[in-house]
User: Which sequence fits this backbone?
């Protein structure tokens, strides 16, 4: 195992980081990593030399890169599987001192560094996987919080340290798989950082992102303020995976994977409900912010007034101190005129009175500000009550409009009836007048008939008298 993990031969971070990166690459190419059940099998590649060869090698570079991708994928499988099983058996929150968790981050770091394009500097090529991880916040808005937290950590000075901190925060948030999937799906953006045959650009990267889903059942807690992430040496310890893992059987492993997937689905559903709740609360917060904008502006005006009064008070204090100093000099100077001293004292008294007035005005302004805040709260409450009353009045207005429409319809109908009755009355009056005129004519004709009858009677009497 000393040949597999040459930790004593690895240079320190303060000596030569470029040689360390080259040794890690050769370290991955020297062996072929495969899995036989729960065993880790390492086969040495005899046709690859560990010493740098000035002549170009006859080995196909694509074959070497494919071998490295396969090795990293198998190591990731073993690391994730071992971490899940040990965490479930342990049954507690994991911290940064947990060895399987440390090895998992080392493997993930190797996966993210594979095929990374180097940026040239005066020391050589500098490879960092922090650049691709910064893209995640553009693809998934939820990752912006993690990126901001990493940038705010005071102890991180190198891009490698920021990348390691980002991986730990993403695991604590249980979104590492989601972020990696979103990053791998945008190969057009990754091509700026990775070679075409890098792990993140090939199918092995998508497989590793799918395996990371199982880590959502793990609870991890890291304190990165006191941890030196910049100078850690990322060396894979194969001894953890060369042990026999017959303690758990295949059927139990399948049952655990099923339980993990069920828990994952439950957590995703819970996250969706929480997201909906957060959106509703955000809408309410936006409405409250809009309603309080006017109050904030008025408070800002009051604060500006208070600041102005404070500046004026400071100016009065400076003038008073200057006058006091002048008075002291005048008192020391025996040749000073008494009248000037009297005037200075009078001016000092006036300035002191002015200062007192300014302080009183400042207290009044502060009291007015407090009263204004209280009045704003009462006004807001009154506005709410008036809005409710306005809604009720609007409802009553709608009811009155409907009643008015109904009454106008009835009034129109009654007006038509009155008009018909008035026409009928006029006709009856005409007929009555006609009948009265006819009655008068009849009465006159009756009087004429009575006169004629009387005349006939008198004539008849006269005739009778003549016959006798």
Assistant:
């Amino acid at each position: 195992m000393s040949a597999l993990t040459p930790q004593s031969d690895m240079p320190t971070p303060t000596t030569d980081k470029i040689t360390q990166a080259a040794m890690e690459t050769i370290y991955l190419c020297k062996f072929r990593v495969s899995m036989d059940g729960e065993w880790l099998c390492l086969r040495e590649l005899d046709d690859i030399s560990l010493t740098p060869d000035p002549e170009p090698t006859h080995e196909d570079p694509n074959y070497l890169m494919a071998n490295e991708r396969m090795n990293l994928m198998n190591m990731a499988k073993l690391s994730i599987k071992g971490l899940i099983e040990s965490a479930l058996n342990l049954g507690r929150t994991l911290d940064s001192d947990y060895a399987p968790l440390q090895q998992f981050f080392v493997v993930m770091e190797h996966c993210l560094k594979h095929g990374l394009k180097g940026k040239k500097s005066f020391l050589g090529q500098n490879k960092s996987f922090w650049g691709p991880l910064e893209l995640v916040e553009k693809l998934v808005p939820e990752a912006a919080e993690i990126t901001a937290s990493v940038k705010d950590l005071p102890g991180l000075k190198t891009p490698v340290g920021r990348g390691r901190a980002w991986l730990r925060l993403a695991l604590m948030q249980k979104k590492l798989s989601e972020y990696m999937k979103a990053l791998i799906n945008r190969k057009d953006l990754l091509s700026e950082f990775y070679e075409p045959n890098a792990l993140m650009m090939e199918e092995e990267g998508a497989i590793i992102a799918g395996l990371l889903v199982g880590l959502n059942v793990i609870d991890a807690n890291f304190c990165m303020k006191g941890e030196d992430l910049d100078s850690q040496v990322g060396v894979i310890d194969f001894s953890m995976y060369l042990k026999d893992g017959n303690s758990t059987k295949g059927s139990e492993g399948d049952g655990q994977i099923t339980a993990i997937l069920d828990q994952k689905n439950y957590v995703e559903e819970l996250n969706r409900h929480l997201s909906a709740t957060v959106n509703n609360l955000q809408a309410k917060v936006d409405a409250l912010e809009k309603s309080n904008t006017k109050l904030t502006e008025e408070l800002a005006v009051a604060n500006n007034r208070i600041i102005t009064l404070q500046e004026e008070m400071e100016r009065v204090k400076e003038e008073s101190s200057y006058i006091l100093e002048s008075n002291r000099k005048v008192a020391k100077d025996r040749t000073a005129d008494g009248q000037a001293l009297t005037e200075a004292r009078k001016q000092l008294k006036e300035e002191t009175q002015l200062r007192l007035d300014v302080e009183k005005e400042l207290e009044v302004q502060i009291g007015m500000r407090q009263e204004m805040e209280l009045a704003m709260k009462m006004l807001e409450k009154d506005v709410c009550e008036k809005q409710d009353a306005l809604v009720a009045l609007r409802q009553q207005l709608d009811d009155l409009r409907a009643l008015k429409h109904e009454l106008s319809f009835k009034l129109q109908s009654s007006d038509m009836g009155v008009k018909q009755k008035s026409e009928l009355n006029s006709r009856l009056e005409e007929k009555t007048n006609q009948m009265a005129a006819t009655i008068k004519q009849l009465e006159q004709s009756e009087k004429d008939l009575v006169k004629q009858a009387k005349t006939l009677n008198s004539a008849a009497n006269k005739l009778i008298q003549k016959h006798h």
Summary: The first strand starts at residue 31 and ends at 36. The chain has 13 helices and four strands. The mean pLDDT is 77. Residues 49 and 56 are 12 Å apart (CA to CA).
